[in-house]
Write a structure and sequence with these properties.
Blueprint lengths: L1 H16 L10 E7 L6 E7 L11 E6 L5 H12 L8 E5 L7 H9 L13 H4 L5 H19 L2 E11 L1 H12 L6 E5 L5 H16 L2 E11 L3 H17 L2 E10 L7 H14 L2
Parallel strand pairs: 3-4, 3-5, 5-6, 6-7, 7-8
Antiparallel strand pairs: 1-2, 2-4
Helix pairs in contact: 2-9, 3-6, 6-7
Length: about 280
Amino acid sequence: MNTVLLGLMCLLTMSGAFATKKFEIDNTDTIPITSQFNQQSYELYVRLPKGYNKSNKAYPLILINDTSYSIATASGILHLIEGRDVEEVVVVGISYSIGTDKLFSRTRDYTPTYAPKETGGHSLAAQKVSGQADDYVKFISKQVLPLVFDRYRINQYRKTFVGHSYGGLLGTYILLTTPTLFESYILGSPSYWYDDEVIFNIESKYAEKNQSLPAEVFVYAGGNEGVIQRDLHKFVEVLKSRQYKKFKLSSKIIPNTSHFSVFALLLTDGLIGLYGK
């Protein structure tokens, strides 16, 4: 009996030694927040630079979505290049809404128009909640940014929006509807095909009333992205033809990359382009 008990004790000790815990990104705070505009709950992931607690300076802000992959990618990239190739920055990631399928969450929050018959999205079921980007943008401008400004030292005149795929569509929508919300944008593989290329109509309406577009934009697509690459070229040509004042645009096709493999490369390039030392 003593032998059996001793064996059980050893097993319990070993199980405790090998107990798992969730991986956490260094220097990153998690803040719960509920939107007043769509009543959805989210988490903010605030990644601070290494020197944050040793300085009194205000840092540029990078706001990023699709945090199931983007926040870890951004953190890894910055771990390598921050303070060397680029300035130190604060990264704020907004999670998908808590308790919602991520494909439904991003369809609801990142698309500008209701398009229930759009077959290029995640699913027709997800499309039933599409077109609520206005509420999401209000959430960012009225709640997320004020909270971050209140709790952290942020240079409020150096804010960058990062978006990929639907997130790139969202970033372009923000650019054309609330152009002063961010000073710069890194937009990857934007879904300009969405809802019969409705983003072109949105841009046209903006151009009818405005001669300036105060922003610096880096936009990218992967070399293997056929339709997205085509639409990106088209959109870039439209923007160039407007000759907007106070507008800077850089576009790149990154060779031998797909819709998914391009993200880390474009984010690195965009960060160096905007914040290179």
